[in-house]
Amino acid sequence: xxxxxxxxxxxxxxxxxxxxxSLVAGVEEEYEKLINTLARIHxxxxxADERQVIESVWSGRLRTIIHEFDDVVDEWSAxxxxxxxxxxVGTSPxxxxxxxxxxxxxxxxxxxxxxxxxxxxxxxxxxxxQFTNSIEFSSISRKEGKNERLPxxxxxxxxxxxxxxxEQDRILKKLLCESNFPVNSDLYIISIVGxxxxxxxxxxxxxxxxxxVKAHFDERIWVCASENLSDPIKDFRATVDPITRIAGKxxxxxxxxxxxxxxxxxxxxxxSLLYAGKGSRILVxxxxxxxxxxxxxxxxxxxxxLSEGHCWELFSQTAxxxxxxxxxxxxxxxxxxxxxxxxxxxxxxxxxILGNVMMSFNIREWKSVLGSDExxxxxxxxxxxxxxWWIYSSLPPPLKLCLSYCAIFPxxxxxERSTLTKLWMSQWxxxxxWxxxxxWxxITTNYFEELAxxxxxxxxESDHDDGCIISCKMHDLMxxxxxxxxxxxxxxxxxxxxxxxxxxxxxxxxxxHASFTCLPTINLIDPFWISNxxxxxxxxxxxxxxxxxxxxxxxxxxxxxxxxxxxLSNNRFIEQIPEELGKLVHLRYLDLSxxxxxxxxxxxxxxxxxxxxxxxxxxxxxxxLPRGMGKLVNLRHLEVGGTNLRSFPKGMRNLxxxxxxxxxxxSWDDVDGCKLQDxxxxxxxEGSLSITGLGDVWDAREAEEAALMNKEHLRHLELSxxxxxxxxxxxxxxxxxxxxxxxxxSLGIHDYIDAEFPNYIASLTNLKRxxxxxxxxxxxxxxxxxxPVLENxxxxxxxxxxxxxxxxxxxxxxxxxxxFPKLKQLIFSELGKWEKWEVQDQEQHDDMPSMxxxxxxxxxxxxxxxxxxxxxxxxxAPLQELRIYASPILRRGYQRGGNHWNAISHIPIxxxxxxxxQMLVDYTSYYFQYRDYCExxxxxxxxxxxxxxxxxxxxxxxx
Length: 959
Known about the structure:
single chain; about 950 residues; alpha/beta; ten-stranded parallel sheet; eight-stranded parallel sheet; 28 strands; globular
């Protein structure tokens, strides 16, 4: 991994000098020497044996020197920012451009004394020069050649396959069904994707040799592509010759183990197959989903892990082959079945390897192997890691560093994509300066997706709205590999008993990134365990409610001089953060979320000029932010949802680098707080934003200056018009001035007090979710029926609403437009005066447009005066669920045996009851959380290529 670190460090050095020589003014000679020395080291490492580099002692020494250089640059740039007159005055760094280093790392400052920093850089240069002259450096061996696996063949034994019957059937249907062949397509490609050892080749062999396949295809061809598609003469010699003999014949071509994609070579292959018979198929196996997608696969199957029973069966076939064990021994060994399954982790290859190793062992030796982590690690390094090495070696340097960083998390940890990418951002060497044509968030997100496409992650959970990955896990085998390449640089420490002195005391040493997990009951008041942490760049304390950590916090902060990322979340014993926080001059990522008793943040926080991410969500007692927040000109993510903040300090307008601001509080205090117009220049905001206190905005011009229309990256917006001194006269004009960009996906308007809603609501053509609540003076609903992609609509607590009519549908009867064409879920809650819901003109019964053709769920909650629901809902909408609560007139009409029962009796799920209103409101919230969970599960199953059982029964939804 040190080769990747050297590569990125060299890029930064060259970028700093090539873009603007003044960036290194005063240290030109030292910088030139550094570049030359690092270039020499980099050249040697490019041809070195990577395994030797990882396992060497000198690689740690080299990493340390490079990190020391990073520390010097950080200290220098922080000092420059402190000296700069721009801090706190309203300016901030311009955005990153191609071939420009981050402004937080610029070294130019006319009034800054360079002496101490020059000495440090000269010392680093001397250390590197000594290293290049050392025996260790001169003895680095070269690579012996590419790490190739043995070529695969189409032959196999039937006994080698267990637990893939479902996958086999699904692929056979795709291969054998003629109707699957797409029109106007020259190739029909099916791809099997999965991590190393998951059984892709074995499944392909099973398909290739299946009797139905043999009977269906005139010709079958097996090619082990091994490395890539780079040389069609070499890689496809076995393909081209037979193809000359299959003109007009239906054939199956298997391309096993495709590693990279080359469009030109694929086109050459297509030309060779032009005269193939109709119904021909290509089956591709690959570890990279990106390869399958680029090749134009019509269908992709992502292989999952084997069950415990199938792993045991496969293991037994290998270990007991040739009747090498008597039945008595087999019965005895079933006692350790769970241990074997735990070692295999669902991987067929691991089961085979373990079976082969244990074939010649006695029972005592079996137990010894299963009980030894060291022996197992040696086995997987020898038999499994070689198959992962080639894909790791092909990664660019930044991705190698991102992947190795994941070793700081414990096995089985659920990665949140947004958290992981922000942690990567906190480590400067993760991003090459040549890649910064885009925002860092975009770059790190692309890195994450690329690693996911390479099968380094699994068990994906995706966002319901845009399909983006929210979270995932890493298979234990991949975690073992990542931990192997990271060696002593990254470490996950876990303490679950009283062995903490043995485990922790010597642990940190020269570790650069670490997580630390312990039970709340373990006493860590004595901070001895943090005494050797000078090299730490990352420390994640994943330890819920540990009083020892809270008590030792001043000492912990004092002993982390070089930390870039620090997590101190989920601890109810942390009530305040000590002033020592200001000493962490390198800090870029700080997570204090879910500290329920945290009340105060130190003013020294505002001296952390490199800070990019500050997470304060769910700190329920936190009432204010430090006054100097405007100094944090490099802050990009500020998460404050679920706090008790009453206002924001002045100077927030300076934070023009902000991309995440979960909540913005408009101050009614003209002296100390933020005003709505302070949002004006924060045009990089993305994701979700909630603006509260809008009732205290008395001038529409102030709302116009907020320029929400210019914030094109915002997707979710909440507007709350509650205020200390609500101005009812200006509320409509203020609301109109807050028109958002058309890209908005979700909108909530709360506590709005006017008879009419803002006009722009009906023109937000990309809106998928809309919530209107506590708008007590509104007499009519806005014309929402023409919103083309609206899927979820909730109307609640409108005390003045008496009727809903044709204006709600907003349809043109003469053009027969559909009303609410994509609406799936509709909820009306606590509308105490609502009496009528009309959807047609009294004089035009036969000329009505279609309404809500995709509505699946309707909830009516707490509407005691509503008399009847429109019959069109039950005739046109494919309604799957109808729920009526605390609405007595509707209950009598729509319960079994009521006047309207026949109109709804066909609906699969009907729940009509009368309960306590408050309980029903809570139930509605619970219900939608459950629905979101189901949707996420479906998306997750789709990403894994697995079927989702779906189906929601009435009993499963009852509390």
